[in-house]
Amino acid sequence: MAKAWHLTSRPQGLPTRDNFALREVPDGPLDKDQMRVRNLWLSVDPYMRGRMNEAKSYAANFQIDQPMTGGAIGEVIESAMEGFAPGDLILHMGGWRDGGIIGLDMMPNKLPTEALAAGLTPQTFLHNMGLTGGTAWIGLLRIAAAKPGDTVFVSAAAGAVGSAVVQIAKAREMTVIGSAGGAEKCAWVRDLGADAVIDYKAEPVLSGLAQALRDLGKSGVDVYFDNVGGEHLDAAFAVANDFARFAICGMIDVYNDTKPQEMKYLVRAIPARIRMEGFIYTDQFIDCMEEFHADMGGLIASSAVTMRETVHDGLESAPDAFLGLFSGGNIGKMLVRL
Ligand code: NDP
């Protein structure tokens, strides 16, 4: 019998393990358009925090006492769905569980066998070739329209999205300033090619950013890729060049807040004519999927884009992996291996 993590209560502020329970899910013979799957990798992502609230987030909210869902890589065990056979590796949305019955509502897609044969690991489709790499690529190149020569500031630069942003920007000859929490993460962001790195846990973001710009001989930032919100976003407003573009990807600093945060420098949006645009990966992805896969596949093949993974083992560890995102417990992509 398969087991799945259920949301048992809606978190107030930072979630705890008490908000979740591991329970068996119904099993039985397959209906048409269903498969039985054994999951191999589960993704935990910050956007799932919004799905735990009562109020609607951009993805449908989780229901109390129902299994949670999310990105996963699984192996097909038995199939009554056309086009899928036992042994196929699939990307689907039936995460937070060790397997079970998957229908079309879980959006199963076969992993491309040629990419796997070329050496890509299956879980790459949960990060650089999937949600987080796609979010980085779309946000930087489509939403912010970043171009060679731009000075790009990216927060949570040692995370899954942020590390991809750093590397895509460097591959396109941009100057990159990253911010991350702690010396180990900052050293990795530098290794990825960032021209300057701010340890926001050791100094205020604005003074770090101003110093980095002085050291690099730059007047300000042309592009801000926001993964964090709060103090980072405010500092970006303070140092934005005229006609800067802000791609608003995520605001992990405020996801668990119960009160709004103060923005001191937002008013600079007017004289600096800043364009700020929030975006959601799923809105944009279909339109640019082919171009993204070709470009990102090439960057990975040439090692211009690499990845680190922080791996928790076993279904039991999924809530800890998820909660770790909010305390900086990951370098690169946070994953659960089953
Ligand atoms: P990450 O791998 O970046 O993990 C989260 C990281 O955020 C942590 O490692 C931590 O790094 C940092 N962090 C946590 N709390 C804070 C805080 N209070 N202040 C500053 N940094 C903090 O996650 P993802 O790459 O998956 O996601 C990055 C962002 O992108 C998130 O905001 C997410 O919601 C968003 N996103 C948006 C999508 C969209 O379609 N718009 C799609 C996918 C992701 P550190 O130790 O450096 O603090």
Word description of this protein:
- This protein is α/β, with parallel strands linked by helices and 338 residues long.
- It is built from nine helices and 15 strands.
- It has helices at 47-51, 113-117, 131-143, 160-171, 183-191, 205-216, 230-239, 281-301, 318-324, and strands at 3-7, 20-24, 34-43, 72-79, 89-92, 99-103, 109-110, 151-154, 175-180, 196-199, 221-226, 240-248, 275-278, 309-313, 333-337.
- Strands 3, 4, 5, 6, 7, 14 and 15 form a seven-stranded mixed sheet that branches. A six-stranded parallel sheet has the order 10-9-8-11-12-13, sandwiched between helices. Strands 1-2 form a two-stranded antiparallel sheet.
- It is globular and about 65 Å long.
- It binds NADPH dihydro-nicotinamide-adenine-dinucleotide phosphate (NDP).
- Residues 45-47, 131-132, 135, 156, 158-162, 180-181, 185, 227-228, 249-253, 279-281, 325-326, 328, 330, 334 line the site of NADPH dihydro-nicotinamide-adenine-dinucleotide phosphate.
